[in-house]
Amino acid sequence: MHHVILERWSRGRSPLHRRDPRFKAVALLVFLVVVATAGQRLPLVAAVWFLLLCGTAVAARLPLAAAAARAGIVLSFTAVFAGISWLAGDPARALSLILKSYLSAFAVLLLVSTTPMSGLLHGLERLGAPRFLLMVAQFLYRYLFVISEKAQHMHRAALSRGFGGSRRRSGRMEAAAGAVATLFAKSYGRAEGIHRAMLARGFNGQFQPLEPLRAGAADWAFGAAAVLAPIAVRVAIERGA
Amino acid sequence: MPVWATLDAAAAPAAAVAIRRARSTFDPARIPALGVMGAFVFAAQMINFPVGAGTSSHLVGGALLAYTLGPAAASVVMIAVLAIQALVFQDGGLLALGANIVNMAIIGVLAGYLPFAIWGSGGRRRAAIFAGGALSVAASAVLALSELLLSRVPMPRPMLAISLAIFAASALIEGAITLAVVEALDAMQPNFVRKPAERPLALAALAVTAVLLGAVGVLFASTAPDGIEHLTRIQAAGLPERWLGKTAAGLGGLALIYAVCLVIGRFAVRSRAAAGRSA
């Protein structure tokens, strides 16, 4: 499964991995807004931003080519709209859609591949995101792999029983519905087991982070640089027209 | 451009309401269940349903979650699904998250739950389940299309017709899949799917009409985007900047839609209370 790669990357060691997740999240948000609102001389601004992001990836000791390629997944979604804009006679808009979506995806990728999900969600909680939602997201991420694997097992088991050979479509529809219902029941049962196990270990309604977040001078320096650099690039190039 | 920002701004309070409702109606100690059901939504997408002509489709899940967990908890699960999707799977994008939350997690889930809440316990239960699945996808898709049009993505007329046809087909498919899965769940263990409270018929018809009119209205408004701006020109008139005016107009339009939803919701609560007293 492809998100296992992110999981591995996010547990790497680099100065960037060590930064407080709160600063990385805020820097990402600022970058996304600065990208989304950019207009003048976009190709040049985008090129410099791309180099900045590449530099960040290298500083984080991520495999640059693989990371840049992974961020390209987003293009399969935006290419459609870019194509439409192009055909409707607006190539500038098509280009801007592609550039902006790619840069945004690259930036998000850098955040999630330098911050383990639990740390990121904890940071977001400290930034004021609702805890209930973050806990749901945390469990979702934790059991995503488990339940997906179960679905794959069920699929393989169904194939080995000769599923798919049936000519009757309604029969296959019923079988697929049964598979989803079984997966639902298994997930539900699993959740109850998890809940009982958590109660048995003294869960009191909230997670206790293993190490509390602490913002040091390096974090503030990083945060300032990460927020200001993209803005400075855009202002410098737009003014220098 | 201001469309995504407007929707991000709108998604935050809507999500807050859903979370508060989910917390009050759903035992917070059972948060793991919500997370695992989110993982289930991801995993269920691996199971393919044959839909004819050699193609296959999969469950979207908003309506199914609403039937099993209740609408507020279902919204929270869908928000978590969308957030994880935007963070981990590089699709959709983080700034579009607000739009996705409004379209799929809030409106999609509510539109999917509505027919079930009204007819879910009577003889029309199967039809209601089918309609809920279909309506949830239809509402999300029409909203997404409207938002694209509002942000002035050029969309030639034949393209619009094709996308609407595709939306209609995927809505019917989601309805069929949701119904099939609910029937399989009922056969397995009948208490997985909740039993909605009884509601009067007139209110039901009114609510469904309101949703349909709303969806169609939004689509029409966005094919002629000046319409909505015109409607809310009062707020926009005094503002100098064009984009500021547009944002204000968009916010005004959203406030209008919120107000309509509030009125409908208030009405629904009152008539449910009345039904409770007479019972």
Description:
The complex is a heterodimer of chains A (241) and B (279). Chain A is flat. Helix content of chain A is 76%, strand content 0%. Chain A has 241 residues and is an all-alpha fold. Chain B has a single domain, classed as Arp2/3 complex 21 kDa subunit ARPC3 (Orthogonal Bundle), CATH 1.10.1760.20. Chain B is built from eleven helices and two strands. A two-stranded antiparallel ribbon of chain B has the order 1-2. In chain B, strand 1 and strand 2 form a beta hairpin. In chain B, helix 1 packs across helix 4 and helix 3 packs across helix 5. Chain B is globular and about 50 Å long. The termini of chain B are far apart. The relative contact order of chain B is 0.11. The C terminus of chain B is likely disordered. At the A-B interface, helix 3, helix 6, helix 7, helix 9 and helix 10 of A face helix 1, helix 2, strand 1, helix 4 and helix 7 of B.
Q: Count of DSSP helices of chain A? A: 11
Mean pLDDT of chain B: 75
Total beta-strand segments of chain B: 2
Q: Specify the helix fraction band of chain B.
A: over 70%
**What's the CATH class label of chain B?**
Mainly Alpha
| Broad structural category of chain A | mainly alpha
Instruction: Provide the β-strand percentage band of chain B.
Output: under 5%
- Helix and strand string of chain B, N-terminal first? HHEEHHHHHHHHH
Helix content class of chain A: over 70%
Beta-strand content of chain A: under 5%
Number of helices of chain B: 11
Strand count, sense and barrel status of the largest sheet of chain A are: none
What coarse outline of chain A follows from CA principal-axis ratios?
Answer: flat
| Multimeric status of the protein | heterodimer
